[in-house]
Amino acid sequence: MKKVVKFGGSSLASAEQFKKVGDIIHADEDRKYVVPSAPGKRFGADTKVTDMLYGCYALAEKNLDFKKEIEQIKARYQEIIDGLGLTLDLTPEFEKIVDNFKNKAGSHYAASRGEYLNGIIMANYLGYEFVDPAEAIRFHEDGTFNADLTNQLLSKRLENVERAVIPGFYGALEDGTVRTFSRGGSDITGSIVAKAVKADVYENWTDVSGFLIADPRIVDHPEGIEIITYSELRELAYMGAGVLHEDAIFPVRKEGIPINIRNTNAPMDEGTWIVGHTCQKSKYVITGIAGKKGFASINIEKDQMNSEVGFGRKVLQVFEEYGISFEHMPSGIDTLSVMVEQKEFEAKEQNILSGINKAVKPDHIDIQSDLALIAVVGRGMKATRGTAGRIFSALAHANVNVRMIDQGSSELNIIIGVSNDDFEAAIKAIYAIFVEICL
Ligand code: ASP
Question: Which CATH number fits domain 3-207: 3.90.1720.10, 2.60.120.10, 3.40.1160.10, 2.40.260.10?
Fold first, then answer.
């Protein structure tokens, strides 16, 4: 068996956390490829090393002095080195970094040093080979990830490497210029490595025991999700369920490599399994609930709209011209609504409205703002009668007015639009009707 293990920033924030990670790795000899993040927060008000690096580079870019700031970063690493009792000296690495900052190596390079240095410490601590992802993780010139070339290069690079540490979060362009993924991107690196070495499992270690059925800031101590499919997770992640970077499932999904989300601070917990397919039913018909506030609905009315060929296309074209993507488009016989992210839309509102007027000459347009979208997701819904009925009666009992309903064609989710003010009450009501009632 081969396992790729990725550890997040809070799992590597201090020497104490590093030791827990070391114990986890040594407890299972299949844990052969380790992907570390940069040191995260040690306590609530602490600063992540990645943010310290961005701050430091912002000074360097303006030709301001950044000596104090770089010393603070060095101290974070030294604390870990000393706490682990290692003899490693990062001074030459820091000298190189300072030079490169002065030569304006770029903010991607700056941010990537958080993972790079933590990788050096981790490799030294474990006695594993250090593999710099700049050698094998490739980006296109336009900054997008080059999946095919990366897989070729990385599988070759790791072919005869029994155990290795590969820092997360970055790679490089063809010419060697360092490039990072978006924030939280070490999750993506873990997935890329799992694919390259054809791992049996990709373990993603963080500070929670997996995904929860609902947001714990809204529902008091929600139950955890034991097993979830990639498709269900896509729906939930899109709607804001954090824990794993949205793009992290793509490399492993095609290969059918399961992801296991685990808790470094509670290693005995099974966490959440993310899999391609499963015949295991979710415990509660629904797998999870997630949602986001801040949407607007542009409602367009025109008599006999349904017989006007191309009506929908013309409306959407206006949104496309202004670079606004739409979330949902529910329609009636003579009405059509386009739901968009309010903040994005607001800036271009009048242009879009006049564009729609010109394009389709509607009888009437109105805008509803401050809406929230809630996704109720579950592979079990397809085969269970009355799921929608239960959702809507729970919402009615909670005095929540439903403004929009959309069921995805996969029957994996039901999306409900409510007013921003009803968002929390709606999530609580849905959680109660499916989960609390069964407890
Ligand atoms: N260190 C990076 C961040 O803070 C990447 C990561 O942790 O995944 O976003």
Answer: 3.40.1160.10
Selected from 1.10.3720.10, 2.60.120.10, 1.10.10.10, 3.30.2130.10, the CATH number assigned to the domain covering 288-438 reads 3.30.2130.10
Hey, where are the domains in the chain?
A: 3-207, 288-438
- In three-state secondary structure terms, 245 is coil
Residue with tokens 């009615």: 396
What is the tens place of the pLDDT at every residue in 136-185?
999 999 999 999 999 999 999 999 999 999 999 999 999 999 999 999 99
Which whole-number Å values give the CA distances from 356 to 206, 319, 324, 353, 414, in the listed order? Answer: 46, 9, 13, 5, 28
Measured in Å, residue 48 CA sits from the centre of ligand 1 at: 9
Which atom of ligand 1 is nearest to 187's Cα?
Answer: 8
- Look up tokens 């899999």; give the residue: 275
What's the farthest any 2 CA atoms get from each other in the chain?
78
Pick the atom of ligand 1 nearest to 183's CA: 9
**Substitution site in 6, 35, 37 for ligand 1 pocket (most atoms within 8 Å of beta carbon):** 37
Name the residue at shortest CA distance from atom 6 of ligand 1. Answer: 184
Around ligand 1, the residues with Cβ closer than 6 Å are: 9, 37-38, 48, 50, 114, 168-169, 183-186
The pLDDT > 90 percentage for the chain reads 85
pTM of the predicted model as reported, rounded to 2 decimal places: 0.88
Cα separation of 148 and 293, whole Å? Answer: 37
Task: Tell me which of 46, 107, 183, 189 to substitute to probe ligand 1's pocket, judged by most ligand atoms within 8 Å of the beta carbon.
Answer: 183
Q: Which of 277, 193, 187, 155 is nearest to 228 (CA)?
A: 277
- Which atom of ligand 1 is nearest to 184's Cα? 8
